[in-house]
Design a protein that fits this description.
5 domains; 28 helices
Length: about 800
């Protein structure tokens, strides 16, 4: 392939970049190189450039596809030096071009909500009204009538902060081409969000100042309103975040606009509330605003004094509020409160998006003609899912098995509590779930799977066997496509399918076997949780073709037998918060099944008895011990704010490379690469000379990648092995420059870079790479390979387990 490199580097980055590019390509200009190169060579160039990248580096690579066509492959360094096509900008303008000229003019005495020039009072009332209607549609329970009122009031109040005089100046001025159109007060200089409170923070400030006058609102309702006001936009990331609460926002606002303008802001707030009250009475004779928000600005000084006393040391509302010392009962109450906050916030945000899409004139007309409900009618999910679910029943004969499955689905549908379906593999859980969804008149199904591989298996099963004509979407970090009308389309709008198959972003345990349509007569397993054991047992004689006794052999360490929790397996189960449950399950089975032959239905009965027995043990229950530990870990993670909506202001890029956060919900994992192992005949495995996946040349194409727990990699000793070998395998990796005696530093670099999909940890090497470090004889005894067969991929398997399996089979 022919490629051209363009350098826009500055300062010391110029000679560093030239040294790399001069080694691979011909320089055809001061900042331009061209050459014929292989894919491997191009990947090496990119890695070497990234190895020396600084803020002054900017290099683009273009693939010459023909005489008149080239394609941007990637950019290393500062992307702002190029546009989205890799072209260097030479001119810019701040003038409006003819298609950006606004046809409406702002009035000086009007308050606006956005650059569409929607009047703030009409905009806010419409959002409050629609938020309340959305809440009623979702909840449909008179028991929560008071919460629906909170949705209305929060919607009416959420944009009061836009009365900020600087926001009004911004929204009324001539719109610039680079203005960010999300209704946010984002400007450069003195009044940027780093030095000036955002409108949601000012909205909360106004409410805190005037909430002393609120009537008929209890403290729980006020707390809910405060949560929605603050969190209806993501929290901005500030380098030196001094905006800790309403009082700090008040101090910054007073500094920027002065006491006189602040008094005007409060006066304007009460004026807009009165206008909204008039609109509400005209629209549907609702007097909620008059009853709950009879605000007055007559004693502004007194209001400020009370505010300073009450809020000087109070912080902004937490997105989620939990403490590791909370009891289960306290946690249950907090979960209920946080769930209500989530629902109220979602209703207000959804209503805001619906209203903000309208033109100013259309919005005024909808209110004047009392037609706001039509906006919700347009939002109804246009889905044929019900019809598709009806068709599922026609695909199967009316056999005794089908009738039993339908009976179970009906029993699930009749439950008022959370429905739980447990059954062995092959019993028809997928079909029962779809029938249950039909009986519940589901408009959309979100199918949450524990691993990406399970998602792929469910997606294939649904699109081929059950719902071939429905819109079935798979949505994970690696895969985003939708099956519709017999075609698979990439990059759909998220959650646009009738059925969305997605994943939980964390490691839940070794249950990838759920996606494998395989059967076995004899299975060997490590000690594992009750649910995993039942899942694996479902692969014994999956299709009912074996007349002999099927065997699940579980390896139990001597430490566990003696009551100790030592060893790598115990450590692994402890990390999954299932060690105590697993030990109790082992003891329970030893007592009930030791040496007996049983049917799988009997084991499911024992499974239910086990958990019933654990409930009776109360605080001594192994399950409760593991659950308490899992809850505390979850609380610690939540308290690190990893789920908190946060917005980082940075330019968008076209790069779609995956990276793992240091506080990822999937745990402390790293990207890995595995060599392929052919197991068509597991007695004679074939080491293929290829890796599980190949990264694309450009930055835009998404591709499959693999991840593994860093603790597992360390425990197997693989990270030390990689540190010793990888510098010689891949000379472009940053670990290459670290001396051999500094193994600890090598490990740290490998682990840190492996958060980037471009620098995975190689848990196994192909033959070509092994030959660079001593040949195939240096394979690590516990190297992990990607096992495949002609029928389907199997997944990861370590050499020691494969060797044990082969030895066991030969010993028979």
């Amino acid at each position: 392939m022919i490629v051209t490199f363009i350098s826009q580097c500055e300062k010391k980055a110029i000679p560093r970049t030239r040294r790399v590019l001069d080694a691979f390509a011909d320089r055809i200009g001061d900042n331009t190189w061209q050459t014929v190169i292989t894919e491997d060579g191009l990947i090496a160039v990119k890695k070497l450039l990234r190895k020396t990248v600084t803020k002054s580096t900017a290099v683009s690579c273009h693939w010459i596809r023909g005489r008149r066509r080239s394609e941007l492959l990637w950019v290393v360094g500062n992307r702002n030096k190029f546009n989205s096509e890799g072209i260097v900008p030479v001119n810019s303008t701040q003038k409006e071009v003819f298609m950006d000229v606004m046809t409406m003019k702002a009035k000086k005495d009007e308050f606006y909500a956005n650059t569409h020039l929607q009047p703030l009072a009409e905009h806010s009332f419409a959002i409050g009204y629609l938020a309340q209607q959305l809440f009623k549609k979702v909840v449909d329970n008179e028991e929560y009538e008071n919460l629906s009122k909170v949705a209305f009031l929060a919607g009416c109040l959420h944009d009061l902060g836009k009365l900020d005089p600087h926001f009004q100046d911004w929204v009324k001025k001539a719109k610039q081409p680079d203005d960010i159109e999300d209704g946010q007060h984002i400007e450069k200089g003195k009044f940027s969000f780093d030095k000036h409170p955002r409108h949601n923070e000012i909205s909360l400030l106004i409410f805190n100042l005037l909430e002393q006058q609120c009537k008929n609102l209890n403290n729980r309702q006020k707390e809910s309103i405060q949560h929605v006001l603050y969190w209806h936009h993501a929290k901005p990331y500030r380098q030196n975040d001094d905006f800790t609460g309403s009082y700090k926002a008040y101090e910054y606002l007073m500094k920027n606009i002065g006491a006189e303008q602040f008094a005007v802001l409060i006066k304007n707030s009460t004026y807009v509330i009165k206008r909204m009250n008039g609109i509400a009475k005209h629209f549907n004779s609702v007097e909620l605003i008059e009853q709950h928000l009879p605000w007055s600005d007559e004693d502004c000084t007194g209001l400020i004094e009370n505010f300073e006393y009450m809020f000087k040391s109070r912080s902004f509302p937490d997105f989620k509020s939990y403490a590791s010392t909370d009891s289960t009962d306290v946690l249950t109450g907090k979960i209920q409160t946080n769930a209500q906050h989530n629902l109220l916030r979602a209703c207000v945000i959804s209503a805001d998006r619906i209203v903000s899409k309208q033109t100013a004139q259309d919005l005024v007309d909808f209110i004047a003609e009392k037609r706001l409900d039509e906006l919700l009618e347009d939002q109804e999910i246009l889905s044929d899912l019900a019809e598709h679910l009806k068709n599922v029943a026609t695909k199967f004969p009316d056999s005794e098995r089908t009738q039993k499955q339908n009976q179970v689905a009906q029993e699930l549908a009749d439950l008022r509590d959370i429905a739980v379906l447990a059954g062995p593999a092959g019993c028809g859980k997928t079909k029962i779930a779809l029938e249950w969804a039909r009986l519940k008149d589901a408009k959309k199904i979100i199918w949450v799977c524990p691993r990406v591989q399970v998602c792929q298996g469910i997606f294939e099963e649904l699109t081929q066997d059950y719902l071939p004509d429905a819109k079935v979407e798979i949505l994970t970090g690696e895969f985003k496509y939708i099956h519709e009308n017999g075609k698979t389309l990439n990059e759909p709008k998220p959650f646009s399918g009738d059925v969305v198959v997605t994943t939980i972003d964390q490691i839940l345990g070794p249950i990838v076997q759920a996606s494998l349509n395989i059967t076995s007569q004899h299975m060997l397993s490590e000690m594992t949780s009750p649910e995993n054991m039942l899942q694996r047992m479902g692969r014994l004689d999956r299709f009912g073709e074996n007349d002999a006794v099927n065997i699940l052999q579980v390896a139990i360490t001597e430490n566990v037998k003696n009551g100790s929790c030592k060893g790598s397996l115990a450590y692994f189960l402890n990390q999954l918060n299932s060690l105590q449950t697993t030990k109790a399950w082992y003891d329970f089975l030893q007592d009930r099944l030791n040496g007996k032959v049983f049917k799988i239905a009997e084991l499911y009965t024992l499974y239910r008895e086990f958990y019933a027995h654990q409930v009776q043990l109360n605080d001594k229950s192994a399950v409760i011990q593991d659950m308490d530990k899992a809850l505390k870990k979850s609380i610690d993670l939540l308290n690190k704010k990893v789920t908190e909506p946060t917005k980082v202001m940075k330019p968008k890029t076209a790069e779609k490379k995956s990276k793992i956060s240091k506080n990822s919900l999937r745990g402390d994992s790293r990207f890995v690469q595995l060599a392929v192992l052919n197991l068509n005949d597991f007695r004679q495995p074939i080491f293929e000379n290829e890796y599980a996946y190949t990264p694309p040349l450009d930055d835009k194409t998404e591709y499959d990648n693999l991840a593994e727990s860093l603790n597992i990699i360390r425990d197997l000793g693989l990270i030390t092995f990689i540190a010793q070998k990888h510098g010689n395998v891949d000379s472009t990796h940053p670990v290459k420059g670290i001396p051999e005696k500094k193994q600890q530093a090598r490990c740290a670099v490998l682990e840190n870079y492996a958060r980037d999909a471009d620098y995975p940890l190689y848990l196994s090497y192909i033959e070509d790479d092994l030959n660079k470090v001593g040949g195939t004889g240096v394979r690590h005894p516990e190297a992990i390979y990607y096992a495949v067969t002609d029928q389907q991929p199997i997944g990861s398997i370590s050499l020691d387990k494969l060797k044990f399996l082969t030895t066991t089979q030969e010993g028979k």
